[in-house]
Specification:
The complex is a heterodimer of chains A (157) and B (440). Chain A is an alpha+beta fold and 157 residues long. In chain A, 20% of the residues lie in helices and 44% in strands. Chain A starts with a helix and ends in a 14-residue tail after the last strand. Chain B folds into 2 domains: 83 residues, 3-layer Sandwich (Rieske Iron-sulfur Protein); 242 residues, Naphthalene 1,2-dioxygenase Alpha Subunit, Chain A, domain 1 (Alpha-Beta Complex). The chains are: A alpha+beta (157), B alpha+beta (440).
Chain lengths: 157, 440
């Protein structure tokens, strides 16, 4: 199957908007049951079994993350971050099993309680077709500042 | 004089059971200047862990107490700490976070220093006068370096007492952490680095604050409840923990001397060391129970229970936290300004841990801890809102009185913070706050 670049881009743009707008349930619905959501700490290429990450969520912890954000007592997102991000530099390759590996750069402006931060990085999505539309099987986010002091990573990145 | 009043920073009114801390010590830059000299340059400060330096030549370089330093294991096996600044003109001689080195060459003019800090190479040395003496240009070192059970500490005061005396009652609690493993404890490579826009002493208080757990971390506690754990019975008890048998639920708080303190409590969460919880799954049960039996063979039932079944949040004065909770975290921090601090947090684990236990440990660690975890960000938020609240300088005092009249202080009391504050006040002012009274 030839990958339709337009469909891949639209999927990523939609995911970005759901994250920016804290559309937690809609965002969670994008993921497969064997999901992996990973933000390494210190550098891009760590062994998550041996080294601490910033985020390393399987489906269960991803659900916990969303349940927490919706609970009304996730203090670090009260008030919520205001966010807008742009995606670019999208590269697409087909992987085994019909999956699609999409790498893209993002630039995220985040404002919370008077502090304006810029987060930038490269995301590596593994997308899988499910009933005719994409789902995220895994997403690894390589933050430019994963080796620096980060105060709050409780929004969706 | 230091230009600011050191009078009545802490009120320690034992007779009435009231303890207050003046909020200007969280906000005024003058107090941070005094803290740098009277606390961070006189106390033993945690720098690194020996397991980060397994082989000769292994080094880590990082900021400790605001200074760039290098901790290196020499070819003779000894661990040394070097001040990371060239004795020529000041450049960092080491710019890597970690690695293995026979020597360090300054990138600026290529002066070269040995693993012991000796100046062993100076390009064009013939241009210097006969008075030029390499021996005077050895890399600086902290006045003292010492190690306790793998924890490497430095002290900038040559006249400081011995580390083991300094650690006082905290030694026993480091022992409880280190005795988890027959093969030694190892710091996992990599760390979580996070920043907080608040005063560093607020993180000290927060790191062993058992009172806030059920309120600030309500959602995390719900997750534990959802996995079948009885939180109400264990996290906010009004009874002492029975450390002998593990029967009953409870906790205690202890002043360990020299400003160190600990809270100790029956674990409301599973601990991969030897304390199974439903969330670990049935498949892990046999392995974890076998580990518990080995601990019992080594230490007897009582100590095995303390090591495995109880958790402890240990604060070693002034800025080292060893929280032996759902995972073990070593946390150290330093203020850059009165309202900003940076935290380095590592995971400590048995050196030979089974990969599946290591995975459980990482799960536990990341679920609770760090800037993307489910609890640390809420702590950060609480500390930052405290700091914002302090702008109301009309409200002068914070209250740290909880449990002051109790014969058996619990984790949800504030004895542990009072232990810190009393020592802090002694070092800052040279006098005791005991007996000072609140204005009626």
């Amino acid at each position: 199957m030839a990958v339709n670049r337009h469909e891949v881009e639209n999927f990523l743009y939609r995911e970005a908007r759901l994250m920016d707008e804290h559309a937690y349930d809609d965002w969670l619905a994008l993921w497969t049951d064997d999901a992996l959501y990973w933000v390494p700490s210190n550098r891009d290429d760590v062994d998550p079994g041996k080294e601490v990450s910033l985020i390393y969520d399987d489906r269960i912890r991803l659900q916990m993350r969303i349940a927490r954000l919706k609970s009304g007592v996730a203090h670090a997102q009260d008030p919520k971050s205001r966010m807008r991000r742009v995606l670019s530099n999208i590269e697409i390759e087909e992987a085994e099993g019909g999956d699609v590996i999409v790498t893209s750069n993002f630039m995220l402006a985040e404002l919370r309680r008077g502090k304006h931060d810029i987060f930038a990085g490269r995301s590596i999505h593994r997308l899988r077709l499910y009933n005719g539309s994409f789902r995220i099987a895994s997403k690894k986010v390589l933050l430019v500042n994963n080796d620096d002091y980060i105060d709050n990573l409780t929004f969706l990145i | 004089m230091d230009g600011v009043s050191l009078h009545r920073l802490v009120i320690d009114d034992e007779a009435r059971g009231l303890f207050r801390v003046n909020r200007r010590i969280f906000t005024e830059p003058e107090y941070l200047e005094i803290e740098r000299r009277r606390i961070f340059e006189t106390c033993w400060i945690y720098a690194a862990h020996e397991s980060e330096l397994p082989r000769p030549g292994d080094f880590v370089s990082r900021r400790v107490a605001g200074r760039p330093v290098i901790a290196i294991r020499g070819d003779d096996g000894a661990v040394r700490v070097l001040l990371n600044t060239c004795t020529h003109r000041g450049a960092l001689v080491c710019r890597e976070d970690r690695g293995n080195a026979k020597s360090f060459q300054c990138p600026y003019h290529a002066w070269t220093f040995s693993q012991r800090g000796e100046l062993i190479g100076v390009p064009g040395e013939e241009s210097y006068s006969p008075a030029f003496d390499r021996k005077e240009l050895t890399l600086g070192q902290p006045a003292r370096v010492d190690t306790y059970r793998g924890f490497i500490f430095i002290n900038f005061n040559r006249d400081a007492g011995e580390l083991t005396d300094y650690l006082a009652g905290a030694k026993e609690y480091l022992d409880l952490v280190c005795d988890q493993s027959e093969t030694g404890m190892k710091v996992s490579q990599g760390l979580q680095a996070y920043s907080i826009r608040a005063n560093w002493k607020l993180l000290v208080e927060n790191s062993y604050d058992g009172y806030h757990a059920v309120s600030a971390h309500r959602r995390y506690m719900r997750f534990l409840e959802d996995t079948g754990i009885d939180i109400k019975g264990s996290m906010n008890p009004r009874q002492e923990v029975d450390l002998g048998t593990g029967a009953g639920k409870g906790s205690r708080a202890l002043d360990l001397g020299n400003g160190h303190a600990v809270i100790e409590y029956e674990s409301p969460w599973g601990r991969p060391i030897a304390y199974w919880a439903p969330s670990f799954g049935e498949s892990a049960k046999g392995r974890i129970e076998a580990a518990r039996r080995r601990l019992e063979e080594r230490f007897g039932a009582e100590r095995a229970w303390r090591i495995s079944g109880t958790s402890r949040n240990l604060g070693i004065f002034p800025n080292l936290v060893v929280n032996d909770i759902m995972a073990v975290t070593i946390r150290t921090f330093f203020p850059l300004t009165p309202d900003y601090l940076e935290v380095n947090a590592w995971s400590l684990a048995p050196a030979n841990e089974h990969p599946q236990d290591a995975a459980l440990r990482h799960d536990n660690f990341l679920t609770f801890l760090g800037p993307g975890g489910f609890a640390t960000p809420d702590d950060i938020e609480m500390l930052e809102t405290c700091q914002r609240g302090f702008a109301n300088h009309e409200v002068e005092w914070s209250d740290i009185s909880r449990g002051m009249k109790s014969a058996h202080p619990l984790m949800s009391d504030e004895l542990q913070m009072r232990a810190f504050w009393r020592r802090w006040n002694e070092l800052m002012t040279g006098s005791h706050a005991r007996g000072s009274q609140c204005a009626a």
